[in-house]
Amino acid sequence: AQAAEAKIVRLVTEPNRNFSGYFYSDDLATRLAPTGDLGKLVFYPANRPRIWVVDTAFIDDVLAMKDKYKIGLEDGEKIDGVGSLVAVNWLNQFSFISSSDQVVVLPYGNPAYRLIKNYAPGELNFYYSNANKRLASFLARSVISDKSGNYSKGSLKSDNSLRVKYAQNRRTLTTLSRVVDAPELTTLRLQMARLLNPNINKEFRDRLLNSADKEITRSARKLRVTAGRYRLTSSEVKLPITLVNNFSSPVKVSLELLPRNSRVQISGISNVIIAPNSKMQLSLPANVITPGTVTVAARLTDAKGVPVTKYSQLNLNLSIVDSRVAWFTSSAATLLFVAATLQTV
Description:
By secondary structure, the protein is α/β, with parallel strands linked by helices. The protein has helices at 2-5, 27-32, 37-43, 56-64, 84-97, 113-119, 121-139, 160-176, 183-191, 202-220, 323-344; strands at residues 7-11, 50-54, 70-72, 78-80, 102-105, 144-145, 223-225, 228-232, 236-245, 251-259, 264-266, 269-274, 278-288, 292-301, 312-318. The strands form four sheets. The chain has a five-stranded mixed beta sheet with strand order 8-15-14-10-12, with no helix packed on it. Helix 6 (113-119) packs across helix 7 and helix 8 (160-176) packs parallel to helix 10 (202-220). The chain is elongated, with a radius of gyration of 29 Å. The termini are far apart.
């Protein structure tokens, strides 16, 4: 009965930042001021009983304003935002004024409930879980997840192009998450929900999609096998292979190597730990069978052999030099050097 009589206060906005973390404008600073629409909700709140319905993605945007932040203009220029103090005051006031009220959390990014439930119900649970955890951490108390969708508003018509792009990018991130447990990857995965926000128009959604494609492609390159060219001149040699991890947490992976023909024999290695923001070079034994060229496809997998990166190409030029030829060549070079020295003397 009390909930039925309670005033619903919604702290929900359209996305304010792109996938790289830059704000689209500084309008949010104006809206958070005591005279703005979002400021009035916390500085001059409705009388109790009241229920706060919150999108944690919006709270994350305001938290990102607390320190120095950048606004990305359409021409690529980055300028400083001026709303840090406004953001701090708003966050403090919201935390204080809601301390005795019920707080209900929407799925992160406020995606259209029915659409995301049909698209990816498992991902919906991920959005709920992380939204709850992040908001509870900020408020330092428990909050309620609206898993029935009662407080979600708005709908989004199913679009095949949007469905395909969302699925492709989500698959890339969930694949990486099999071996990467880094906060920046979790944040990027959560931001995908904003693509399904019902409160934005097609033009703005296309901008978000473009931003998502660029940032997810960049993140996928953070974990990789470095491509290269190698010249092997003996039947048994150590092949140097470089692995890169530019995430902020260590990863445990296996290296899979697939020669495109039988001119060389080389095997991968399992359970390799790559430190955060680092490169690692492995020296793996390779047996050359016949001279020629061969391409070795290299990629990283998880412990179960599931690929987590795309293939990189290792191009090998195999030119075996017989040991007797090498001895004769070395001896001849030594004799020539001695003869030149004697002639000089």
